[in-house]
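Co-fold these.
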Amino acid sequence: MPRYLAAVVLLASLLLPACSRELDRVEVAQFIDRADEAARKRYAPDICALRGKKFESRLVFHAHDADEPSELDMTRKLFCREAGSFSQLRQYQLERKSMSIQLARDRKTATVTAEYVETMPYYEPDRRPATLDDFMEFQVVEILDESVVGIEDGDLVFLSTRSEAHQTLVPKTSLDIPYD
Amino acid sequence: MKALAGPAMLLVIVGGFTIYKATSKDAVPSRDFTELELAADDEDHTGTCYSLSTVLIANGVFGDATRTWSAPDPDNEDKWDLELETVRHGPGGPARLYQVFTFEKFGEQVRLVEVDASEELPTDVTENIDRLLEAPHYRKSTPVDRCREDGGTGYHYPPKK
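Predicted complex below.
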């Protein structure tokens, strides 16, 4: 019996911390820093690894000059595929303008509200660019994100993200976005 | 009681592992299902001369779209949904494009029984079958054994040159 008891205690000691783990603001802030850095590197596997298995994203996008916004719901799979398309960009800038973190009462999840400005080349939708420099305007997208983060399999991940984005097109010559 | 503790623990571990395996991976139809000949949507459900897997491969399994297989009824291995999703970046912003093909086994064939799709895409089954067959016809994909024999014919097969 003591042998089985030891095994049960060992198993419980491994599982309990995962179940009882609580979040704090510092941990969440560090997680968001890591997520922003992954976005800046535009490396899809890193971006994807920070999303939970059931991650869902909802984007309301106000395109430049469009009368009505477009709405886009994405599962984790589609989100990760889209993240892959960012790797083609050679000029990309992501600035976080603000962030607030609200911990849930049970401290198992947190809601993060953040404002970003994302700048990247704007390739006209119905035209295939000859090179990556073949564009006339940059798109500056102001984004208000509301994400829920929580623990999954012992790791902090995004559980969902709702974003409202406003796009502005500016002449290519008006901005100096470094290549990376 | 003491004698049961070991097997009970083993049962919990094996059970847990089985549940984990069953829920953690995307479900996909068996090879037996995808190797069945795809039927046309005509009255006789004429065979197209291509297996479902050949048709999907010839279509590049639809380019860069994400693909998700799911069984509408988990207890029925003879009916599968294939969902394709992509994002189209139009002038009005990004929008989700999707198609859901429902395939069902009937005897030695698999039929496309339903298509659900974004507004811009066709949902008519016959039209979708015709679109699906364009790629294997163009690529001269390998037909099923039945159609490799002399005089073997099928729906729109052999394709017009």
